[in-house]
Design a protein that fits this description.
Length: 394
C-alpha cells in the first residue's frame, strides 16, 4: 500500500471519492468539499490547506480516502484545542501547522475514512498520525468520528476525546402534537408557549429547496447568515459564492427554513438532508441568521420547524448542531461525540493523555446526568447517552 496526497479534491474523480462513503451523508460528498475549496472557504488563505489522503495498492487501485487539511489555526473545528497550542508554545514547540481530518466548519459526527474494507480503514488510521511525524508537524486530529473510525484511530495509538451534543430522534410520530404528547406537562406547556409567541408575532414559515431560490433570494439569505458572525466580530466561514454554487445546484441537499413577517424575510435556518436507500434519513441543522429580535424565534426556526419537517418527511434523526443544553428541554437527547488525537511531542502527548482520561470521565458523568433529565414522561422510550454514530444513519 502507498499513501499519496491531493492538493485539491478535484484531483480525484467524484465517482471514485463518493463510492467510498455512504450516499446519504452529504457532508463528505465530493460536491460539498469541492464547493468549499473552489468558492474560497477551505483554502490556504483561510487556514485550511487541502492535502486529502488516498491509500492505494501497488496497482494503483484506491483502497481508502480521507478529507485532510493542513491547519494554521484551530478555528472552524469545534473541538477546541487552544489550551494545547498554548502549552506547546510554552515548551517552545510549534503547534501550527497541524493535520486535521475533518469536514470544515461542520461539527456533525459521521464517517471520515472512506474505506473499501476494514483492513484499509485500519491502515489509513495508522498512516495519518504517522504522517504528522513524517512531516514534522505538531499533531494529527480526527474530528467528529463515527465509532468505526474512532476505534481504528484508537487502535493506532491516538488519544480519544469526548463531548456531548443533543440530537432529536423520530419515534414514528404522526405529527408534532404526537411528539408533544410524550413530553411532561411542564415541558409541553413550555414548547407550546414558545410557539404561541411566534404565532402571535404574526410570523410565518416556508420550507424551500436550495435550488428553488434565485440569486437575489440567496443574497438575502446570505445577509442573515453573515449577520450571525458579524455580531460576534468575525467574518463568516462560508462565502456567498459557495451558497450560489452548492446551494443552487440541481438536487442539492440544502433545505431552507425561511421566517417572514408579512413579506419581509426576518430569519433563516440553513439545513442539509441526507436520505438513505431504506427511506430513513437525517436532517443536519447547520447555520442560522436573523434580522430582527423576536422572542423564541431561534427555537422555532432551528428546532421546532426541523422536528416538524422530520416527522412530515419521515426522517429519523435531527442533528441540530454542536452544544446547547437548552435543547434538552425541547425533546433533544444527549449523545457522545468522539475525536482522536496524536501529538508528536512526547511531553505534550503525555499531558494531553492524562487530561483526556479525566475529561472523558467527566463527560460520561455529565451525559448520564443529562440522560436522567430528558423532558419525556416516565415510561416513554428514552435514549441513554450514547455514541453519535447514529448521525450516520442517513
Amino acid at each position: 500500500m502507498r499513501l499519496r496526497q491531493l492538493d485539491s479534491i478535484a484531483a480525484l474523480p467524484a465517482a471514485q471519492w463518493n463510492a467510498l462513503y455512504p450516499a446519504g451523508y452529504p457532508l463528505l460528498r465530493h460536491e460539498f468539499l469541492a464547493a468549499l475549496e473552489q468558492r474560497d472557504c477551505a483554502t490556504p488563505e483561510t487556514g485550511w490547506t487541502p492535502c486529502h489522503a488516498v491509500l492505494e495498492d501497488d496497482r494503483g487501485a484506491i483502497l481508502a480516502v480521507a478529507p485532510l487539511y493542513l491547519k494554521t489555526h484551530s478555528y472552524g473545528e469545534f473541538v477546541f484545542d487552544f489550551s494545547w497550542a498554548e502549552a506547546s508554545h510554552r515548551i517552545r514547540h510549534h503547534y501550527y501547522p497541524k493535520l486535521v481530518c475533518a469536514v470544515p466548519f461542520t461539527p456533525s459526527a459521521g464517517p471520515r475514512i472512506g474505506a473499501r474494507d476494514e483492513a484499509a480503514r485500519a491502515e489509513m488510521a495508522r498512516r495519518l498520525p504517522a504522517l504528522a511525524d513524517d512531516l514534522e508537524l505538531s499533531s494529527f486530529h480526527g474530528l467528529f468520528l463515527d465509532r468505526p473510525d474512532s476505534d481504528a484511530f484508537a487502535a493506532a495509538g491516538c488519544i480519544e476525546r469526548n463531548d456531548v451534543q443533543f440530537h432529536w430522534h423520530n419515534r414514528g410520530y404522526a405529527d408534532f402534537a404526537a411528539f408533544l404528547a410524550t413530553l411532561t406537562s411542564e415541558k409541553r406547556k413550555k414548547v407550546l408557549r414558545e410557539r404561541r409567541r411566534i404565532s402571535e408575532a404574526g410570523l410565518r414559515f416556508e420550507w424551500r429547496r436550495g435550488d428553488e431560490l434565485d440569486e437575489a433570494q440567496w443574497v438575502e439569505v446570505y445577509a442573515l447568515y453573515a449577520n450571525t458572525y458579524e455580531e460576534h466580530g468575525r467574518p463568516p466561514y462560508l462565502t456567498l459564492d459557495f451558497f450560489l454554487d452548492y446551494g443552487r445546484a440541481p438536487a442539492s441537499p440544502v433545505r431552507l427554513i425561511l421566517a417572514y413577517s408579512e413579506r419581509k424575510l426576518v430569519a433563516v435556518a440553513i439545513t442539509l438532508v441526507g436520505e438513505s436507500a431504506d427511506g430513513s434519513g437525517t436532517l443536519y441543522g447547520r447555520h442560522w441568521g436573523a434580522a430582527d429580535r423576536y422572542h423564541s424565534l431561534h427555537f422555532e426556526t432551528c428546532y421546532y420547524q426541523g422536528i416538524e419537517y422530520c416527522i412530515r418527511e419521515g426522517l429519523q434523526h435531527f442533528d441540530a448542531g454542536a452544544q446547547g443544553e437548552h435543547k434538552l428541554s425541547r425533546g433533544f437527547v444527549p449523545v457522545t461525540t468522539q475525536s482522536q488525537h496524536w501529538l508528536t511531542e512526547p511531553r505534550l502527548r503525555a499531558a494531553v493523555n492524562r487530561a483526556m482520561r479525566e475529561e472523558r470521565s467527566w463527560v460520561a458523568e455529565r451525559g448520564a446526568i443529562l440522560s436522567e433529565h430528558t423532558p419525556f414522561k416516565r415510561g416513554e422510550l428514552q435514549l441513554d447517552v450514547g455514541s453519535s454514530a447514529a448521525a450516520t444513519d442517513g
